[in-house]
Amino acid sequence: MPVKIALPKGCLLRRTAALLQKAGWRLDEYHSSMGFYRPRSEKFPDLLIRVFHEKDIPIQIAMGNYDLGICGLDWVEELLVKYPSSAIIKVRDLLYGDGSLYMAAASLPKDVRQNGAPLRIASEYPNLAEVFALKQRMSRFSIFQVWGAAEAYPPENADMALLAAGSAADINSCGIVPFSRVLDFSTFLIANRNSWENKKMDKIVASILEALPETPKSASEKKDVFPSSLSPRHQVPGNQKEIIRLALPDGHQQQQTVELLSRAGIKIIDYPSGSGNRRPDIGIDGVGVKVIRPQDMPLQVANGNFDLAITGRDWLTDHLAQFPSSPAKEILDLKLRRVRLVAVVSRDLPIDNPGDLLRFSASRDEPFRLASEYVNIADKYARENHLGHYRVIPTWGATEAFLPEDADLLIENTETGRTIARHNLKIIETLFESTACLIGNAGSLADVKKSRVIDSIVKRLRTAVGNK
Amino acid sequence: MKIQRCKGMRDMSPDDMAVFRRVVGICRDCYIKWGYREVRTPVIEYLHLFTSAGTLTPGMLGKVYSFLDWDGWSGERVVLRPDGTIPVARLYTESMQGLARLFYTANMFTFETGEGNRERWQCGAELIGARSAVADAELMALSLEIVTKLGLKAVELKLSHAGLIKALLSKLKLSQEEQHRIFDSILDGDTTLLKKASRESPELSDLLLPLLSLKGQSTGFLREQRALLRRSIPEIGYPLDDFLKTIAVLDDLGLKYQVNIASGAGFEYYTGIIFQLYMGREKIGGGGRYDALIAAMGGGDVPASGLAIYLDRLMKVFKADTVLPSAPVRILVKSTDVKEAFKAADALRQSGYIAELDLDGQKAEWTLEVKSAASMVLIDKASKKTAVRTIDEVVKILEAKGAG
Q1: What is the pTM assigned to this prediction?
Q2: Which of A235, A404, B119, B211 has the smallest CB count inside 10 Å?
């Protein structure tokens, strides 16, 4: 069995590539931001290298799919704090990618042990957030696991956010104030415990460790001064006239959304925002806008944080698969960003349609592995296809890299199918077609005061969609 | 591939269940005779029931099975019940008032790494609405009665007092958070933190260390030091008197106990006396007073105390043959005439026997071959055949053989 290593894409890619360059690995394609996620090393030609989203790496190491991995300690701790018996060894601090996890809020909660309404915490790190809440002895709390933009939630949509930053000052610049440093992290080399004890990887590990700078990191303690109470200027701006709260997507969907709004005759200022403003002004009375991840919208609409949101049907479907009685409902198909949600397997597998899945999974001892960003859709797919013993592996993008070694089937979205074909994969079924849609909270729709404003927005959008 | 049970969960075989039912039966009998009434609460509860101020230690909360329910879009989690007392207190708060004696048999779930049990059964009782030393003594006497009825020998009753520990901690000039941490560690059975902290306050360590290492029947030390303790730690007055009052009742009743202030129990909701039952090093039960719990749930100022018997541990220490009552005699009923076989089996059951229909030609201690309504043959273990005409005759033979 060759040694397998998982390398990070995203913000750690450049420094990791530089370290491995110094270690003499001579990688062919790891420097590119796109690519096939399957670099090769001239120095270690037998080493199997895959590139994953940083968050996926601890899970891959713990499961034993990979022997070694490089990722931030924050994601390792996020896994270990919930699953302390995970088979992960922290081999060595690689001395770059430093940061801390801060708990931040717009105003300090008076008494975190109060009874009453739950304290809401938004974070990409739900497990660490839960431990924090328990340690603080919060009597009642809700944790919103978000895909990103946690800093945008306080104060209206969450009481606090747990987020990563280089320093407390970085958090201040988002308009919220950190009040507790929960974890310091940097990039780590990690290993699967079983591999560490049984596999010969010393040359590979040594090459990385020898490339590290000799002087250890200065042991200077981070000195963050946290306010004991927050000044009133951080209080909620309290827009009393705001009747409807609308969530708009960040990322690459912004341009299409702006065009749609403009066709609907709805003016919006500072969206997309060059300065990272997540609260653009919209030219409709009584409507407030916030910019968050489309993945997080159905849940935020369901829990009443937003009345309306523009997201994809794929994410609404995933949400409804987890919470079938959720009040988040599709109101209007915006007919934008048309993709198909498909089930994908390796071209080398004897599976051509869903019927073959059952035969294939029943013929093996190992559990059938489904990898997807859409965890709940994947879970439902496995149940509906009667896959007996299966596992769903959550991923954060670049899911194609999982096949064929680290998963048997993907649930993926695709526009043209070209990426899938390029990775030597095949589509065995189309689950449904997804487009951008306007979703809303059923309670808000039934509220007389709100429904008047909602109706007028829907009417304008419907005309714009029709006029396309 | 054979599908196996979940790691850390347990099956109970027919033999295990016979022991389980017997142990629970003895607990139930005792509880009922003392006036307790049985309740059952759901396996799934909201997480915040258990996180609400001062109920379980963060160490225990970190090990609960929590998850988002099918309607969990609010982000609030539910748990598989990790504790028996809190749900019963919740039930009381929701629908009862005044004095209530309640008991339950239930399974609890907490995550244990490695090979530990993640599902544990206990049979517990809660005495809600009474504040007196007599109420505390009732629970201890009741738990000792159960232990005696179970035929267990050499069971030790160890006593501590949560109010006493808290009063001591309040003197150590610790932050609220440190106090909580040390209290939790004491409850989890670890006194190193407390010993370390008390060493830093020399004037207190003279008092604390002997108190912490105090073990045994004699409460003389406590009585002697009462005045001195009260002078150094005024807050200790009430819990100390409360503790001594309960001990006086136990002395009156002639119950044997050991005082061990540092003995842990892992439940932060205790406010008064804490007691534990040990067989050697095995803890088989325990309980205590939790006067603040119902108030923390919004149920008003209602005092309460409770006890739990740990069934898994008892089932291990317990010799099945010594406590199992003899089961009724089994008779295998064979016949080619299905209707007559069912009729004969039914008549045997009415007479108090176990009648099994023969399905696979198995052998049994007693077999009844039914040829027709009035023609049967009873066969014993030694294959001796006796012709009989009625079930009454069968019963007579069985009774004569002492198998009645």
Answers
A1: 0.82
A2: A235
